[in-house]
Amino acid sequence: MRKGRWATRPGEIVIDPNQYGDATIGGTVTVTSAPGQPKLTVVGLALSVTEDQEAWVVPSQLAALRAKGAPVQEQMLYTFTHAATTGQVSADLAELKAALPAGAVTNSVSWLDTEGTSAARTGTAHLATGQAIHMTVGGATVTAKITGQVYAPGPLLGALLTSEQTFTSAHASLPVRLYQALIRPGTGQQKYQAALSRALGPGFTVIVQGVGIHGVGLYGLVDTSLIRLLTILVAVLAGLGVLNSVLMLTRERVHDLGIFKAVGMTPPQAIIMVTCWVIVPAIAAAIIALPAGMALQNAVIHAIAGGQPGSVRSATSIGSLVHVYTPGGLVLLALAGLAIAITGALGPATWAAAARTTTALRAE
Fold first, then answer.
1. Alpha carbon of 5 to those of 14, 40, 55, 57, 107: distances in Å?
2. CA 296 to mean position of chain CA atoms
3. Phi, psi for 31 (deg, rounded to 5)
4. Would you place residue 27 in the very low, low, confident or very high pLDDT band (cuts 50, 70, 90)?
5. Into how many domains does the chain fold?
6. What is the pLDDT of residues 86-129, one digit of tens each?
7. Does some domain include residue 145?
8. Are both 207 and 232 inside the same structural domain?
């Protein structure tokens, strides 16, 4: 529990703020898939330690929230004491199936086993790109090869993402129970969700989210407003740093400038000369900083995705977060650095051009 309290009576609900970011204590949640579309009051915000739950109500509330015609389902979670090897996991599963009613265990996945293709969530233990896994779905064994990694620290998408053909090719059936929809700005979220729930019928979960923040692609929503502000601040500070450095350099060389002016240097030529003092260092900095920045971004994104569960509400390929720069974009970044350097040097260059020759010659 992060804030508020647990539900104690019907009509109350506790939700995961990572999945429903606009939820507030005291607000209401309308369950559009349930008969009569009941409204529940949010009394608390909580997180699931195992990241497999999004909301909590009292048991007596469940019947009213079940869609008409939806089958009654229960899920039990088991933790095996000995599960370090494939043999131990298989023995545990056999013992569990023998203790439960026939058909109670519908599928199982062992992360220790090493074709269809699948993408694994980043941070999933013992899985790596290129590795083959075996899944038991409805009594059929499905083999898939890990072809990539997906940054999806939230619980919505599970541990493996694959196409429907992976199961149909092995004559395995896995029903679809969850649909996610990303709607365009201006679309009514509740109306769209209600219409989609009616179209799909009972037994489905519909989650609709709007694009309320700037993102990096369709499936990875990241708030970039702070990053934009920091970029502006860094650009301003860089310009001020160039201004300070060139100003001191110009003061040190003021006598030389006086000599140049005495032999015929014009004010535009003085501005060009002072500006050229920063162009070469700016080009060298761009050559060093761009590759270093890209390497640092790659390392940071992989570190975040691999070891820190967060609140990203959808999934995105790690590559889409890292490989965000086109050749044209990199050229623009280099030119932006050059423009900042030139802008910072214009002030001292203008002062040097306007300085009188006699004053410059007398300076020490």
1. 8, 14, 13, 12, 35
2. 17
3. -90, 95
4. confident
5. 4
6. 778 888 888 888 888 887 777 666 655 544 444 444 444 456 67
7. yes
8. no
* pLDDT at residue 138, as a whole number: 65
Structure token pair of residue 94: 């056999």
Helices (H), the chain: 62-65, 86-99, 165-168, 189-200, 225-252, 254-262, 267-307, 318-322, 327-354, 357-362
d(CA 130, CA 144): 10
Per-residue pLDDT, 332: 87
**Any domain includes 138:** yes
Reference 121, options 268, 330, 260, 317; nearest CA is 317
**Sign (positive/negative) of CA torsion 56, 57, 60, 62?**
negative
| pLDDT mean over 218-238 | 72
* Whether residue 206 is found in the same domain as residue 254: no
18 and 88 together in one domain: no
pLDDT tens digits along 70-86 = 777 766 767 788 776 77
Let me know whether 45 and 95 are in one domain.
no
Q: Long-range contacts: 25-30, Cβ < 8 Å, 24+?
A: 29/55, 30/190
Where in the sequence is the domain holding 40, given as residue range(s)?
3-65
* Pair (28, 153) in one structural domain: no
Residue 217 located in a structural domain: no
User: 357 and 230, same structural domain?
Assistant: yes
What totals of helices (H) and strands (E) does the chain contain, helices first? Answer: 10, 13
Quick: pLDDT tens for 317-341.
555 566 677 888 888 888 888 888 8
State the pLDDT at residue 7. 92
Cα separations in angstroms, 122 against 145, 151, 239, 323: 15, 5, 39, 17
Considering 212, 237, 270, which residue would you say is the last residue of a domain? Answer: 212
In this structure, are 202 and 241 located in the same domain? Answer: no
Compute CA 73 distance to the chain's CA centroid, rounded to the nearest angstrom: 32
d(CA 154, CA 156): 6
Instruction: Examine the domain organization and report whether 355 and 319 are in the same domain.
Output: yes
Q: Would you say residue 54 lies in a domain?
A: yes
Residues 6+ apart with CB under 8 A from 92: 80, 82, 83
